[in-house]
């Protein structure tokens, strides 16, 4: 995927010219103890879970075109504005054709403003599944009152001057904070345990003849991804310092068998900026609703970095998943072909053939220089 990498290299070279559980998590006693767990984590000789084939019994017969069998308690979630309608329709039609027309999982659409009738009509025409439309509570979306607006405004102005991507945008910060700490609290999502996050204008390249929600459920997975990469350093200058403060204050919330080695090359002293690209997520909502992540988000939110800097939900979710779940509960969905500009995961080999993928297999971000998938692989020895 050399053309996509070239795009990113240009962005970096110009210095961001673009502007706009149910699980008992275990105990670790300190950052130094956590470091020992991290160092020892690579001693097991395993292959990454995605390199173990999905069992045959999960795959539907080729002649099946309607829902059969058991289902997980799950929903497909889209955060969208009315103006995103065409992009929503494109993403949703692919989701239906590649996966959901066989499995019939419900959709939940969320918006900080009421959805228009035209939006609702076009969306509901695309699926036989249930569709719900939710309004985001105002206090879950707007800048919270404890933020010093003068300080936040000064920070935005500096980021604009420094050409930091989305550096001057308050709505973008609202979105990052909402996705980090509030989407899973919405009334429409309370009945569900699992979610698949889908965004407007993304592509799904491959037919999926098994249910990834059942893989999450049956194998006790907490978080699933398709693309991982490095975060823009200018958007998170104090994030890791804040994370370390939280770990020191709450060592017992961190899983001993964590994925810290994905985040840090020195046992947690510094952050290598690797994160899972959260525009695609298949997750267990219990991870975010649990004590560990709830306290973690509240701690970050109080520090104000979503507004004084520009902390994204991708690094926040990734750090949360890596610290509060076991490393084997984080899953790379190797056979789900996916693109969000400018990067894509295109399944290789037999997975490409089985999924009848229409992406070019040579355009694959997995092991390009800006990808972090090799760090995920190293978690397993």
From TrEMBL:
Any one cellular-component term (Gene Ontology): membrane
Keywords: Transferase
Pfam families: Glyco_transf_15
GO biological process, any: protein N-linked glycosylation
Annotated catalytic residues: 281 (nucleophile)
Coiled coil location: none
Gene Ontology MF terms: alpha-1,2-mannosyltransferase activity
Recorded family membership: Belongs to the glycosyltransferase 15 family.
PANTHER family found in the cross-reference section: ALPHA-1,2 MANNOSYLTRANSFERASE KTR1
Protein name: Glycosyltransferase family 15 protein
């Amino acid at each position: 995927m050399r053309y996509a990498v070239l795009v990113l290299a240009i962005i970096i070279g110009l210095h961001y010219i673009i502007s706009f559980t149910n699980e008992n998590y275990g105990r670790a006693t300190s950052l130094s103890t956590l470091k020992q767990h991290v160092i020892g984590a690579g001693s097991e000789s395993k292959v990454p879970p995605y390199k173990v084939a999905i069992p045959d019994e999960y795959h539907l017969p080729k002649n099946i075109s309607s829902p059969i069998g058991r289902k997980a308690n799950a929903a497909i979630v889209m955060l969208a504005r009315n103006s995103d309608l065409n992009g929503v329709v494109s993403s949703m039609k692919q989701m239906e054709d590649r996966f959901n027309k066989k499995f019939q999982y419900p959709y939940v659409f969320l918006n900080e403003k009421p959805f228009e009738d035209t939006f609702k009509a076009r969306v509901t025409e695309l699926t036989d599944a249930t569709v719900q439309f939710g309004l985001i509570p105002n206090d879950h979306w707007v800048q919270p009152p404890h933020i010093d607006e003068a300080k936040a405004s000064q920070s935005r102005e500096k980021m604009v001057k420094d050409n930091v991507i989305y550096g001057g945008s308050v709505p973008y910060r609202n979105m990052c904070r909402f996705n980090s700490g509030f989407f899973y609290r919405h009334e429409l999502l309370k009945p569900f345990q699992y979610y698949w996050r889908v965004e407007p204008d993304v592509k799904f390249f491959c037919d999926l003849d098994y249910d990834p929600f059942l893989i999450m459920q049956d194998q006790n997975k907490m978080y699933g991804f398709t693309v991982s990469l490095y975060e823009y350093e200018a958007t998170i200058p104090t994030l890791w310092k804040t994370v370390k403060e939280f770990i020191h204050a709450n060592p017992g919330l961190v899983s001993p068998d964590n994925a810290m080695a994905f985040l840090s090359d020195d046992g947690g002293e510094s952050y290598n900026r690797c994160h899972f690209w959260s525009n695609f997520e298949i997750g267990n909502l219990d991870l975010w609703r649990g004590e560990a992540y709830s306290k973690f988000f509240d701690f970050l939110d109080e520090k104000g970095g979503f507004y004084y800097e520009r902390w994204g939900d991708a690094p926040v979710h990734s750090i949360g998943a890596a610290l509060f779940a076991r490393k084997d509960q984080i899953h790379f969905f190797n056979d789900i072909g996916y693109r969000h500009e400018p990067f894509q995961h295109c399944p290789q080999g037999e997975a490409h053939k089985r999924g009848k993928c229409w992406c070019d297999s040579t355009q694959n971000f997995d092991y390009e220089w800006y990808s972090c998938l090799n760090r995920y692989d190293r978690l397993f020895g």
